[in-house]
Amino acid sequence: MTRFAGVSSTDRPQPTVRIFTDFDGTVTREDVGEALLRHFSTDEDIDATLERWSRGEVNAAETYQRLYAAAPHLTESALDAFLVGFEIDPSFARFVDWCREHRYPLTVLSDGFDAYIERLLRRAAVEVEVKANRMRLGEGAPELDFPYTDRRCPQLAHCKSNHVALLSQDEDLVIYVGDGSSDFEAAGFADMVFARGPLENWCQEHNITFRRFYSFTTVRDILSALIDQRKLRPKKRAQVLRRQLWSTG
Ligand SMILES: [Mg+2]
User: 48 C-alpha to center of ligand 1: Å?
Assistant: First the structure.
């Protein structure tokens, strides 16, 4: 209970259903980040570099730095023009409203970049908390910043599990929604996982129970029913992982 040191029990926020979601391939159907990289980076070894990253020979931040160093034409206006072809899943906007109505905190955790995520959300008039890598556009190649790297997650530019553990309270019911490799580690910290794509296989291989989702309508309907029936339960293993990270982090 060190986390509440100095805070009286009456000041403690009420336990809640707390939801974390990935962005690329989850809030959007496509991986916008990868499409952006492939469109703007002139690095000739893009596939080889991505391959080395997937084999764990280089880390994500180094990979991004290298590939975006070869993207001198990625300006604000070029990004706006590129994003015309992409949109967030309309079911996500309704999901954000549902979370707000029920006061369930919702956070987007992305291993991509704020520059395109915030533009796409703004265009859809969706307001939600986002934690992502940072990209500043100006003259020449974009400036990148990675505020959420951690040695615990050497493969990732953004160690999402830190947020899952540190933003939640012991009694919260933590929900994670995702699709890809940037979600693998973090999903183990959630009481309930909604998965599709590679995250499904990973959950199966690691004995993590999950529900497959097609859109955020599925997520909302399943969660809503479980909450109404008081069947949303904590998962011991996830609670222990969150507590361990809390006490060491
Ligand atoms: Mg994804």
Answer: 21
Residue 210 amino acid letter = F
User: Residue 5: what pLDDT?
Assistant: 41
CA of 28 to the centre of ligand 1 (A): 9
Residue from 203, 164, 163, 166 nearest 181 by CA: 203
The answer to whether residue 149 is domain-embedded is yes
Kindly report the average pLDDT of the chain as a whole number: 92
Q: Evaluate whether residue 72 is within a structural domain.
A: no
Give the model confidence (pLDDT) of 162-205 as tens digits.
999 999 998 999 999 999 999 999 999 999 999 999 999 999 99
Domain residues for the domain of 208 are 15-29+87-135+143-248
**Amino acid code (one letter) for 219:** V
Number of folded domains in the chain?
Answer: 1
* Residue 63 near residue 154, CB atoms below 8 Å: no
Residue 24 Cα, ligand 1 centroid: separation in angstroms? 4
Q: How far is the CA of 26 from the centre of ligand 1 (A)?
A: 6
Quote the ligand 1 centre to 179 CA distance (angstroms).
5
